[in-house]
Write a structure and sequence with these properties.
With 282 residues, the protein is an alpha/beta fold. Strand 4, helix 5 and strand 5 (150-154) form a beta-alpha-beta unit. The chain has helices spanning 20-29, 43-46, 53-66, 88-108, 127-145, 164-174, 185-195, 199-204, 235-244, 262-281, and strands at 6-10, 34-39, 69-75, 112-116, 150-154, 179-181, 213-215, 249-252. It is 45% helix and 13% strand.
């Protein structure tokens, strides 16, 4: 191995018109160690959960041909179909998405699924949505445990789960070897500014339960599409803290938004992120 850490590329950094095989090619070309697959709330991405075996086999072949793997899934489809919904039909769809994502991960050799830390998103949350979320989360973890698959909460932009400490509340309640935290340090930075605490102190509250981390740039109150180097995320400090806790997998999270020079943006992101990671690991 060339380094003590591994850096993945978030699939949405590339245009939708590319196939997964093509995205693997570009991830490898621009120096990333693996790809993080997106299963978001769009019909296009959710259809992936039903792809036939022949399509799954093509992805497996592409991984072998390019010498790069898909090691994680960002499962944000639960934003539209949350586990804490008060609507029975929505919860049914939520658990179906969970089960199919686990089976897709199993087939593709993916090791972890990042869960969106929402009880609900488009509904109003309350004590009942939190209760339903916890009940259905336990079912989801049981599903994952049958295949030895790790689930990790992403720390989000809403008060329900915007800190590691809040995510750990549910990790502790469920108390399973298969449920952990997969934080976004950009989101944690915004939460720290909002609540007046230290990001690294919050990260330490996940000791023994952080499986990977999203490296994202943010600004106060702004959570998306902030170019690297123009926000307030303290990459080196946060990466060092994560490394001290034994975290060695990171994903660069940024987005393709129609720019013509998206390939150059990916190259620059790799250089930026590795320059910060190397200050900690090399």
């Amino acid at each position: 191995m060339d380094s003590n850490y591994r850096l993945g590329l978030y699939e949405k950094a590339m245009p939708n018109f590319l196939s997964i095989a093509e995205k693997l090619t570009y991830a490898k070309k621009f120096g990333f160690d693996y790809l993080e697959l997106s299963i978001d709330e769009s019909d296009e991405k959710l259809k992936r959960l039903d792809m036939p075996w022949i399509e799954r086999k093509k992805i497996i072949d592409a991984m072998h041909e390019n010498g790069i793997s898909i090691d994680s899934i960002c499962l944000s489809g639960h934003r539209k179909y949350p586990m804490g919904s008060l609507q029975e039909s929505v919860v049914k769809r939520s658990m179906e998405i969970m089960e199919k994502a686990i089976l897709l991960a199993k087939d593709l050799g993916i090791r972890m699924i990042q869960l969106a830390g929402y009880d609900v998103y488009y509904e109003q949350g309350n004590d009942r949505t939190k209760q339903f979320f916890q009940q259905n989360l336990k079912k989801a973890v049981s599903m994952a445990s049958r295949y030895g698959l790790l689930l990790g909460f992403e720390t989000m932009e809403t008060p329900f789960m915007d800190t590691v400490e809040k995510a750990m509340t549910y990790v502790t309640q469920v108390d399973s070897s298969y449920l952990h935290v997969y934080p976004d340090i950009g989101n944690l930075t915004n939460a720290a500014k909002l609540y007046g605490h230290d990001v690294n102190e919050d990260i330490r509250k996940g000791k023994g339960h952080i499986i990977a981390a999203h490296l994202k740039e943010t600004l106060p109150g702004k959570y998306r599409e902030i170019p690297y180097g123009t926000g307030h995320t303290q990459f080196v400090s946060n990466i060092r803290q994560l490394a001290e806790l034994g975290v060695f997998m990171f994903v660069g999270e940024f987005w393709y938004v129609g720019q013509e020079d998206w390939q150059e943006d990916i190259r620059k992101a790799n250089v930026f992120l590795r320059s910060h990671l190397d200050r900690v690991f090399v």
